[in-house]
Specification:
Blueprint (H helix, E strand, L loop, with lengths): L10 E4 L11 E8 L2 H15 L3 E3 L8 E6 L4 H20 L5 E6 H6 L1 H6 L5 E3 L7 H9 L4 E3 L22 E5 L1 E2 L10 H5 L3 E2 L2 H13 L4 E5 L7 E2 L13 H5 L2 E2 H11 L4 E5 L8 H9 L6 E3 L7 H6 L6 H14 L4 E8 L6 H14 L3 E6 L7 H5 L6 H24 L5 E9 L6 E5 L5 E5 L9 E9 L3 E6 L1
Parallel strand pairs: 2-3, 2-4, 4-5, 5-6, 6-7, 8-11, 11-14, 15-16, 16-17, 20-22
Antiparallel strand pairs: 1-2, 9-10, 12-13, 18-19, 18-21, 19-20, 21-22
The structure holds S-adenosyl-L-homocysteine (SAH) and FE3-S4 cluster.
Length: about 475
């Protein structure tokens, strides 16, 4: 089993030694946990700090400032961050006594001042919408005072900040298009840590993609908690669109239009996007995907649970039947499309029947990939306030195992469909296991490993005939 379903414990990225600015004298070590959005936020933070005297380093021991971008989605994610803080503490004591430590991201937003009280090592606490304030906050820290800014914003999208690409292969990059989430799924802490939903100016999105293209990047993933809900009408919160002027409404850009625009303008660049919330994914997006070869045929479409009763308790705005209708439409409009899910096992009140409905939905869709979690009660969420976390841990775990095992069967089934076929692969780098092999992905987001011929390089698109597979990897040779 690959560990792809465990996303929160995994470090998403860590700063490399980048060129930076010659005149900068201070060193920043930054690392990110959790989602892709966090990694992209760290790239924005690195850019802000580069303008203010700090170049990044990959050596924790030599850092003047350590920033950890945190995840609060499940309890385990928070425990991982606490362990990292212990590690920084040890280094501070033994090697680098002047090192300052800052906590960014969702856990900073959730715990606020408590962080400064609970963790003596922490000098600085900054929420996801306050990164522009970092240079000011650092002045406080350098004067020996703790500093905190956890204000959430109505309009911050960091649209004008050009991210410093961290840990990059020089081929694929993330571009944020929306921030925040208005959905209030009852289990989820994100609306509390990342604030209300707002979209980024399409012109700034296009110019960031242009910059990436000019630097040789070949693949962009458009990011948001709910990308299909993207709506630019001149700025402001999504929920205030109803008050927009007629002119603003006429010139508004939705997700299908944005996707169409970037795919057309950058015909050789590959586009991906994540995450799609089923309630907001409409047919026009599917038609745009079908129209352009350079939009990857892959949709991450979290379902969370397979029964309408459970979806209702989760405050997801669709039924099982509506989700199935969407799946049918995807299969009809984009037959070759890969689909993946997020599923939570053992949410409040989950019955054995409801769990079986989750398994039967999986059976219907036969997802290509999946990210699967045991429910973790998050303080402050609607579920924590109003519902009981009443599924015993052993049952949660057993159900999760059943879901993971079924996903493995389906993953293998989907991978097997590629055997004997030729797929287009974007080369991302060496295979982890062998320097004689390349690793890349096909349009459907399957990892493809193939032997080097000496005639190709990172960033090339090549055709690979698939000879064999595992449940998570395709293996083949160039044709
Ligand atoms: N914006 C994304 C989800 C972000 S969180 C969306 O629209 O679906 C990523 C995943 O973490 C969620 O899809 C959900 O499956 C899982 N998750 C969120 N809160 C959780 C909790 N309290 N316990 C377990 N898993 C959770
Ligand atoms: Fe969370 Fe639901 Fe938004 S899972 S991020 S509240 S769509």
């Amino acid at each position: 089993m690959n560990n792809e379903h465990i996303i929160d414990e995994k470090k998403q990225g860590q700063s490399l030694h980048t060129e930076g600015k010659k005149s900068n004298t201070k060193k920043l070590f930054i690392e990110s946990y959790g989602c892709q959005m966090n990694l992209n936020d760290s790239e924005i933070v690195a850019a802000i700090m580069e303008e203010n005297g700090y170049n990044t380093t990959n050596l924790l021991e030599e850092a003047d400032l350590v920033l950890v971008n945190t995840c609060a989605i499940r309890e385990k994610a928070e425990q991982t961050v606490r362990k990292r803080l212990e590690k920084y503490n040890a280094i501070k004591k033994r090697i680098n006594p002047t090192m300052k430590v800052g906590v960014l991201g969702c856990m900073a937003e959730r715990l606020k001042e408590k962080f400064l009280e609970e963790e003596k090592i922490v000098d600085l606490v900054v929420g996801p919408d306050a990164y522009r304030d970092l240079p000011n906050l650092m002045t406080e820290v350098e004067a020996g005072r703790d500093a905190i800014n956890v204000l959430l914003s109505r309009d911050e999208t960091y649209a004008d900040v050009s991210p410093v690409r961290l840990n990059s292969n020089g081929v694929s990059a993330f571009v944020s298009i929306t921030r925040g989430c208005d959905n209030m799924c009852t289990f989820c802490v994100v609306p509390f840590t990342r604030g209300r939903e707002r979209s980024r100016n399409p012109e700034s999105i296009v110019s960031e993609i242009q910059e990436l293209w000019d630097k040789g990047y070949k693949e962009v993933t458009l990011l948001g908690q709910n990308v299909d809900s993207y709506l630019w009408y001149g700025g402001g919160l999504k929920k205030d669109y109803k008050n927009a002027t007629e002119a603003q409404k006429q010139n508004a850009v939705d997700f299908a239009m944005l996707l169409d625009k970037v795919a057309q303008q950058f015909p050789i660049m590959r586009f991906r996007f994540s995450t799609s919330n089923p309630q907001d994914m409409h047919l026009d997006v599917l038609h745009v995907m079908a129209k352009y070869k350079n939009i990857c045929k892959y949709i991450h479409l979290p379902v969370q649970a397979g029964s309408t009763s459970m979806l209702k308790r989760m405050n997801r705005q669709h039924t099982r039947e509506e989700y199935i209708a969407l799946i049918d439409n995807i299969r009809k409009i984009i037959p070759e499309c890969a689909i993946s899910h997020d599923i939570i096992a053992g949410f409040c009140g989950e019955t054995e029947e409801e769990h079986k409905e989750t398994l039967s939905l999986m059976e219907y869709v036969k997802y290509d990939f999946g990210f699967m979690f045991a429910y973790s009660n998050r303080p402050g969420t609607p579920a924590a306030k109003r519902m009981e976390d009443d599924v015993p841990m052993d049952i949660k775990k057993r159900r999760l195992t059943e879901i993971i095992n079924l996903q493995q069967v389906h993953g293998l089934y989907r991978m097997e469909q590629f055997v004997g076929k030729t797929v287009e692969v974007l080369i991302e780098g060496d295979s982890k296991k062998s320097a004689k092999h390349w690793k890349g992905r096909n349009s459907q987001n399957a990892v493809v490993i193939f032997e080097k011929t000496g005639n190709e390089a990172i960033g090339d698109f090549v055709d690979v005939k698939i000879d064999t597979c595992t449940s998570a990897t395709l293996i083949g040779n160039r044709v």
